[in-house]
Amino acid sequence: MSKHRLGRQAAASVALLLLAAGCGGDDGEKASTPAPAPTTAAAAAQPVQCATTDISSAANKPEYTLTAALTIEGPTSLKAGANGITVKVSGGQHEFKILKGNVVSQPRKANQAIDEAKLTAGALLFKANPSAAGQSCTGLVTLPAGAYTFVCNVEAGGNSHAGRGQIIDVTVA
Ligand SMILES: [Cu+2]
Question: What pLDDT shows up at residue 102?
């Protein structure tokens, strides 16, 4: 009998805990959106990760395709502000990055890949992980007016996709 009561008390405690957790989480967030990164200064400098973000709210929705011929197909001029970017891979294995500054300003390795260790803090604004043909992702990134480099920074031994032409200047105005 006392065992039975203990069981009921435990159940009541769990219910209270669940209620407390429910109240704490009731901040208007949709369950489908990923939890935001901690809003520390360090986290704020992290690039936007291309994922499955809902970009329907963005006024500008440019699309970029990474091809087997090691090109990036897409607009080279964009409107400043929120851009809902779609990245597609039509052939081969690629990644996609947006860097502040034009192509000639980027630090390069001997194989012509971008030397990311030499980028200034916050220069990498957006990135899509390596992905293969048929895959795509979306992300929302705010681009102030300026010059940018859109690049696939995959390295292949003594060569790189950037070295073979998978890098473009994009002007935002
Ligand atoms: Cu590539």
Answer: 98
